[in-house]
């Protein structure tokens, strides 16, 4: 039974982490809304509460907690601290493939809990699952702060989110914001404007 009564939507709104505009997401898709979860993770007390809630989504044992990107390493660290597990994060090589750097490894037979801040299409999750399986590990599942997907994700592992917040995304060709000539706001500039 979860002990954590976390209202993630209120926290995101309170910290200005849900931003409206015209954004090109890391996936290349366009969106009218961007969720900047790092604004919550900069507060250790919130990071601890979020990690506890995420960990409770998968009560089974995990040897390793792996973030899908270096930018989510704090999230992995906090979830691993709650679970008494090891924390690592995946990186990309020059060709864009997901790899483990920094002498991180997954030993054959280890159980891995994946963590991410926001999931939209599930492609990163599939790459992370493949990386773990190639190393001989077993993926317990993925816990995320926000599931932005508009439907069923193409995953073979369970995904459990603290918040479901579906947001429509568009290719550049079909983007109504582009058609209306709304300028694209750079995601990197958001923290400078805050």
How many helices? The count is 7
The helicity comes to 25-40%
> Strand-and-helix sequence, N→C?
HEEHHEHEEEEHEEEHH
What proportion of the residues form beta strands (DSSP E)? 25-35%
Structural class: alpha/beta
Strand order of the largest sheet: 4-3-7-8-9
Largest sheet, in brief, is: 5 strands, parallel
| Mean pLDDT score | 89
Q: Uncertain spans, ≥5 residues at pLDDT below 50?
A: none
Task: Count every beta strand, where a strand is a DSSP E run of 2 or more residues.
Answer: 10
Alpha-carbon Rg, integer: 17 Å
Give a quick rundown of the structure.
The chain is of the alpha/beta class and 194 residues long. Helices cover 28% and strands 27% of the residues. It has helices spanning 8-14, 38-41, 44-56, 73-83, 123-134, 176-179, 190-193; strands at residues 18-24, 30-35, 64-67, 86-89, 91-92, 98-99, 111-119, 138-147, 159-164, 169-170.
């Amino acid at each position: 039974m979860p002990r954590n009564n976390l209202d993630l939507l209120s926290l995101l709104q309170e910290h200005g982490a849900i931003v409206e505009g015209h954004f090109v997401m890391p996936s290349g898709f366009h969106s009218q809304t961007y969720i900047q979860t790092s604004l919550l993770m900069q507060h250790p007390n919130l990071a601890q509460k979020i990690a506890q809630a995420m960990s409770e989504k998968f009560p089974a044992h995990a040897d390793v907690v792996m973030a899908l990107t270096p930018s989510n390493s704090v999230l992995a660290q906090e979830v691993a601290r709650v679970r008494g597990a090891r924390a690592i994060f995946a990186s990309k090589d020059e060709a864009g493939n997901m790899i483990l750097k920094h002498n991180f490894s997954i030993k054959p037979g280890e159980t891995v809990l994946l963590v991410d801040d926001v999931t939209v299409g599930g492609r990163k999750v599939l790459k992370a699952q493949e990386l773990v399986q190639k190393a001989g590990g077993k993926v317990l599942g993925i816990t995320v702060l926000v599931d932005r997907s508009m439907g069923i994700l193409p995953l073979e592992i369970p995904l459990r989110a603290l918040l479901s917040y579906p947001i429509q995304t568009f290719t550049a060709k079909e983007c109504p914001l582009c058609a209306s000539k709304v300028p694209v706001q750079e995601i990197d500039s958001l923290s400078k404007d805050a």
